[in-house]
Amino acid sequence: MEKQFVIQLDNYPGELAHLARALGQRGVNITHITCAGAGPIACAMVTTDDEIAEDVLKTLGHDYLEGQTVVVDVLDKPGGFADVAEQLTAGGVNILGTMVVGRREGIMEMAYAVDDAEKAREIVPKAALVNIR
Fold first, then answer.
1. How far is residue 61's CA from residue 10's CA, in Å, rounded to a whole number?
2. How high is the pLDDT of residue 131?
3. Which of 42, 113, 119, 128 is the most exposed place for a label (fewest CB within 10 A)?
4. Among 4-8, 27-31, 49-53, 75-79, which is the least confidently predicted range?
5. Whole-number mean pLDDT of the chain?
6. Backbone angles phi, psi at 10, to 5 degrees
7. Percent of the chain beyond pLDDT 70?
8. What pTM did the predictor assign?
9. Which residues does residue 7 pair with via DSSP β-bridges, in sequence order?
10. d(CA 66, CA 97)
11. What is the pLDDT of residues 74-121, one digit of tens each?
């Protein structure tokens, strides 16, 4: 089962490379990754299906949140992302992180790291979306 980790990093050159190398050295395959930084702090969102990833993060001493990954086809229109976020929020699901993992005509494929994937899967079809995985 894929998990998405939202990892707090120091925002300086080489920190993301250090994280990626540590995961790779332990045989963890990164299936998706995104990172952003502001000021002294950066945030990486890493998706993997390898259970060892959590051990690597603990060894490195990074603060992180772990969520279950839910992939949703979101209508690619103004407010499409907001529609999903609002539906999840109204249903009591916390979004820990999200990233675009694909695009096709009229659709954004979004991976959401959530605290309750089962509840998210019940809620999202009610938001009149195309598909959920």
1. 11
2. 53
3. 128
4. 49-53
5. 88
6. -75, 140
7. 93
8. 0.76
9. 44, 64
10. 9
11. 989 999 999 899 999 999 999 988 888 899 999 999 888 899 989 998
Superfamily of domain 67-132, CATH level 4? ACT domain (3.30.70.260)
Mapping DSSP to helix (H, G, I), strand (E, B) and coil, where does residue 15 land?
A: helix
Q: What is the DSSP string of 25-86?
A: HTTPPPSEEEEEEETTEEEEEEEE--THHHHHHHHHT--EEEEEEEEEEEE-STTHHHHHHH
Integer Cα distance of 70 and 117 in angstroms: 6
Which regions of the chain carry the CATH code 3.30.70.260? Answer: 67-132
CA distance 95 to 27: 28
- CATH entry 2.60.40.1910 includes domain 3-66: no
Tell whether the model's pLDDT for residue 26 goes beyond 90.
Answer: yes
